[in-house]
């Protein structure tokens, strides 16, 4: 099993960590605050490496479990240290001032923006942006394993993330090139407007998007 | 039950007609070729009005079961005759020459384009663009009623379509303003790339996108 480094200890870092423990992955957790990394590692259980942002990533797969602005900063600050690794962007860059669009222009995506800032040898992959944290920690909704949509320009990096997702007990769907992140971010933005709508009592940040296939 | 006029007798016209019969709706089918309209009406069964494109729509809800270019032409040719009606755009304006983007710019949508061409008093609604024809005719996938995402700037028109969708035995999801069609069209484009991918054996234009909620 490929090692995974999770940068960030918020709800998504915790959820991805929970799944990574279930997968039996070698795990490293980094946070700006080393204490937070240690606390999350203890809560998740198992033998988890911890450290601060800036430490050399242990994992071949580095998950930026951070908001968009922080993810950009971390990619820039790591520079060449991310070369040769698969860097997973999970962000949904919603303009929270209006909740009516993303902060990235419609002809690009957060994932492509982050890829533009990353070192040449880093393979940026979009994944886990359509899985809400509570649902992801659970791994399923309504008895069905979560779909995890994976976009990236490196087929090898997409495969590495898909293998990890499978090991996590989830269902990977390879959607092709990184620019497909535009559609993934757009759709999840729409999903988020539904969760935030008080008229939609069924939607409480705990739903899952699933492609159903005939039985 | 509100009456529904279906313009177009292709696979989507047939599927929506099938659901409308199941709903017990008053139905009118129009096609450029009156014979095709009559044939579909006979196949669907029941007491269905038929005619040619250009005839006055009988339904309060007019479904453009047409490709994007044809839908634009029909809206322009009808002009004020669509005033006071709910006009449903179902299109997915995929650039089939590349299968890598839509033909509409990323800061708009087919639905908004059609609304821009429609008479002032016509309320354009996006719906049924994420339901493939075979799946829609069936009404469900893997035992689950299909989700039908509905976007439009008129709350009354969205409600009218949602009521129809409910009567069809499907699950309406009101996603708000017509500009949300950007995200709906984008996501369905991504879905279509998956169906068209020979490596994805599970996807054969018969899947359904569903928002799962906790049991």
Automatic annotation (TrEMBL), chains A, B:
Which Pfam family is one of those matched by this entry? F420_oxidored
Q: Which residue numbers delimit the Pyrroline-5-carboxylate reductase catalytic N-terminal domain?
A: 4-93
Query: Which keywords describe this protein according to UniProt?
Result: Oxidoreductase
Determine if Ligase is one of this entry's keywords: no
Question: InterPro entries per the record?
Answer: NAD(P)-bd_dom_sf (IPR036291), P5C_Rdtase_cat_N (IPR028939), STEAP_metalloreductase (IPR051267)
UniProt cross-references to Gene3D superfamilies, sorted A to Z: NAD(P)-binding Rossmann-like Domain (3.40.50.720)
Q: What is the name of this protein?
A: NADPH-dependent F420 reductase
Its taxonomic path starts at:
Bacteria, Bacillati, Actinomycetota, Actinomycetes, Streptosporangiales
């Amino acid at each position: 099993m490929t090692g995974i480094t999770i940068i960030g200890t918020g709800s998504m870092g915790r959820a991805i960590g929970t799944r990574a423990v279930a997968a039996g992955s070698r795990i490293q957790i980094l946070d700006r605050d080393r204490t937070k990394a240690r606390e999350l590692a203890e809560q998740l259980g198992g033998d988890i490496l911890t450290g601060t942002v800036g430490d050399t990533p242990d994992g071949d797969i580095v998950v930026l479990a951070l908001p968009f602005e922080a993810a950009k900063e971390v990619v820039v600050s790591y520079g060449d240290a991310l070369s040769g690794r698969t860097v997973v962007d999970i962000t949904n860059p919603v303009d929270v001032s209006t909740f009516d669009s993303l902060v990235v222009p419609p002809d690009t995506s957060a994932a492509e923006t982050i890829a533009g800032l990353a070192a040449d040898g880093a393979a940026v992959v979009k994944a886990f942006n359509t899985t809400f944290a509570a649902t992801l920690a659970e791994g399923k909704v309504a008895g069905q394993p979560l779909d995890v949509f994976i976009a990236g320009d490196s087929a090898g990096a997409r495969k590495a993330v898909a293998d990890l997702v499978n090991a996590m007990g989830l269902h990977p769907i390879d959607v092709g090139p990184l620019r497909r992140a535009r559609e993934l971010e757009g759709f999840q933005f729409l999903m988020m407007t539904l969760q935030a709508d008080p008229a939609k009592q069924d939607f409480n940040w705990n739903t899952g998007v699933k492609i159903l296939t005939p039985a």
